[in-house]
Amino acid sequence: MVPISYYIMLSAALFTLGVLGVLIRRNAIVVFMSVELMLNAANLALVAFALQRGGIDGQVLVFFVITVAAAEVAVGLALLVAIFRNKRTADVDEVNQLHG
Amino acid sequence: MQFALTDVPRILPEILLLVLALLVLGSDVFERWANTDAARTEQHRASASLAALGLGMILIIALIQSGYVYRLPDDAPINFLTNIVRNLQNGGPASELATTPILGAFATDDLTMIGRLVVIAAAFLTVLLTYDARPTANPGEFYTLIIGSTLGMCLMAGSSELIMTFLAIELTSIPLYVLAGYFRNDRQSTEAGMKYFLFGAMSSGILLYGMSLTYGYAATAAVTQGSTGNNLTQFERIRELVAQAGEPTVLLTLGMLFLIAGIGYKVTVVPFHGWSPDVYQGAPTPITAFIATASKVASFILLFRLLTTTFPVLTGAADVIIPVEASTFTGWTSLLALLAFLTLIVGNLAALPQTNAKRLLAYSSIAHAGFLLMGLVAWSASLAMDREAGIASLLYYLVAYTVMNLGVFGVLYVVDQHTRSDEISVLNGLARRNLGLAVLFTIFVFSLAGIPPLSGFFAKFYVFMAAWQAGAEWLVIVGLITTIISLYYYLRLLRAVFIVPPDTDAPIPTPRWMATSLVLSALLVIVLGLFPNIILTIIDNVQAVAGR
After folding, report:
1. What pTM was computed for the model?
2. Does A58 touch chain B (CB under 8 A)?
3. Which of A8, B196, B328, B467 could bond to B472 as cystine, CB 3.0-4.6 Å?
4. Residue range B240-282, pLDDT digits in tens
5. Does B136 contact A at CB distance below 8 Å?
């Protein structure tokens, strides 16, 4: 069996990639994907820890997260479409009416 | 542990909120198809009045259930009415059922009850504010989303388990993303929705990662201790496993930091506040009021329950000395003390140069989050009495903050309806254009600034006292200095209202239900300030938190 620490290291790496993606990438769709990566990094850690002790509580949480993430992305894409209609761009830097 | 029939009345306010949300959504189907302005207004008012009536009734039911206003005596005569009241109160926070959370996931103690009452009242006042407004597109959906997110906030206030926490936060946030971007053709509104969504989604990612680390620590500890059972997501179980495992490890501390950061986004503490000025400015004004008050109340209650139930071993001390040294970080209270320091400074200083009233109030609301954190910092006190004073001051502040912020955004909304702008300059000469509105505005702004005898003053006074007792004297001094700084920008608002001459003398009308909502808020601000004991005696019940 693969040691649990490998999973955790992979999940930490994925989470870091996700955070970097959110902070660095400017296209809103790519930012969404990075957020998904963050959520899935946490999912991986949860499943790995649940596997380690043979429990299911962590795995149940993962199911809920997957479901909620789908709902969240639906709302996010709808907002993105509304922005795109107004401004013809998906670049988060160009969406800058509010500042100060 | 099984879900029993007696658990149904315990979640009655939540069930009723869900029913109301579906009812408001469904009733929209039976409305006349709105092509003209008159029909659109009719459709809007039908949804708004249904939502307001429903929320008002749920508020009354929750008040009866809580037993804060009237507690049925044991020897009351048995008849139809007393049976209803008794059944309600048996599910309330005073019954012995309330000492254990439902399935370990949802506590129905006094903390939840106060959270529910404040959140439902905030939703009710928000809906009243929108009743006379220009009709929104698809009003049924608009009010369903408000009620849905109110339901999420009630669940947040009571959740005592990780899955429940995550679902409640998402149920609160997703409708709020939509509401912030509700005016699809308005660039500012869509931008606000987008920014709220991006930051919110990132914060739930961070929160979830914190959950996975905390769960991981509990799971590892359970393996070493040979403990079984699939309940490691409960706050209470994690606390027990942590206590048996001895010294907390880096894993647990990291998990706690991520959890604080995740919820920190929701309560807009510096450095997680970046989204809030943009969202508050761009979102429709009543939604701004709702986001600024209700969602913060729920998040603060959740933060309190999470930290005190799950991480008592990592409590720490609040006497951080400036300059901050790494060795002074002993636990979450010292971290929160540092965050409170940053929040007070940044919030108050950034509010000074603002020219947009909503943006200014957004920074003011960030600054208030700093004061609220001071109530949590008081948990580091060694005496139980001082800790209790801390939570009482936090809850009193939350109640006062909710009513005064709903009021101040409400006045801006009335002016915005007439002038279609929320710059400070549109407030110019408000006293000449509508004296009553100007007086209400003055009450709210004075309360925000902390001028006695309004409730904002006592709220600040209590958190300062609690934080001082807990040994965070330096933080109280910072709080006092920033309060004085804040006077400058609050008085700038009043200067516009009373001194600067207006461009036009045309009076600004205040529609009836908006006025009702504002007067209710103003009365609460004054009454809570003159008689703080009314609410403090209720808050004193909170000492027993279920499952701690």
Report:
1. 0.95
2. yes
3. B467
4. 888 888 777 788 889 999 999 999 999 999 889 989 999 999 9
5. no
Nearest to B188 among A39, A41, A97 (CB): A97
Burial class (CB in 10 A: 0-12, 13-18, 19+), B251: middle
Inter-chain CB proximity A87 and B177 less than 8 Å: no
Given this structure, which CATH class describes domain A4-88? mainly alpha
- Range B40-47 average pLDDT: 90
The ipTM is: 0.96
CB contact under 8 A, B212 and A71: no
Contact residues for B142 (Cβ-Cβ < 8 A; gap 6+): B47, B130, B136, B179, B182
H-type helices in B226-331, by residue range?
235-245, 250-266, 276-282, 285-290, 296-310
pLDDT in tens, B364-378: 999 999 999 999 998
Burial of B37 (0-12, 13-18, 19+ CB in 10 A): exposed
pLDDT of residue B323: 47
Q: Which of B250, B227, B223, B220 is nearest to B314 (CA)?
A: B250
Q: So where are chain A's domains? A: 4-88
A to B CB pairs, distance under 8 Å = 148
Tokens 């509990």 -> residue? B218
For chain B, the average pLDDT equals: 90
